[in-house]
Amino acid sequence: MNFDPLFGFATHAEKMNDKKRDRNRVLKALAGSTWGKDKETLATTYKAIGRSTANYAAPVWSPCLSETKWRDLQTAQNAALRTITGCHMMTHPDHLHQETEILPVRDHCQLLTRQYLLGCMVEGHPNYAAVCRPRNGRNIRHDLREFLPDIGHFLDERPYLSSVELRPAISELHNAIDNYRDNIVLGGRPPPIDASETSLPVEAA
Fold this sequence. Notes:
Elements: H1 10-30, H2 39-49, H3 52-55, H4 58-61, H5 67-85, H6 93-100, H7 105-120, H8 128-132, H9 148-155, H10 163-175
């Protein structure tokens, strides 16, 4: 984690981007056109070595990141998804995310932030007081408390969430994410990838 005086986390985002580019080279090495790994293996590899760089401490930095840095992170992910799918540069990013079933960077990081915040609302959690403490009126940057309205329905006006309610609530929060937009060519959602796709040969006929 790299801090800066204004807590904008620009330096941290730049270092994450550098790591993503390095990991993208690994993906390219694994994605040979005649012998490379299949799409599912490449996607799993990216989640393990590429996307994981943005997972670390996401609830801390993601509420503060500028639009420019979000675009930079998304550009690096788009490059990785093109390698995974074998799509061309002109392929729309929405198609890349739908085919790989990977969320855009910002949506994924904000999902992690909401899930972490939900965990903080369990009775006895050491960060409960910090996330529920009201702002003191100073002009401070954004923080994860801005996501409290997104999880309010799980609490139902109660101050705490019980430990047995946490896992189902996190699952519901994850399953409710549906940020894939309609395909601009089809004018709607594309059909799911057929299971037979996994058995196709790598080398084109």
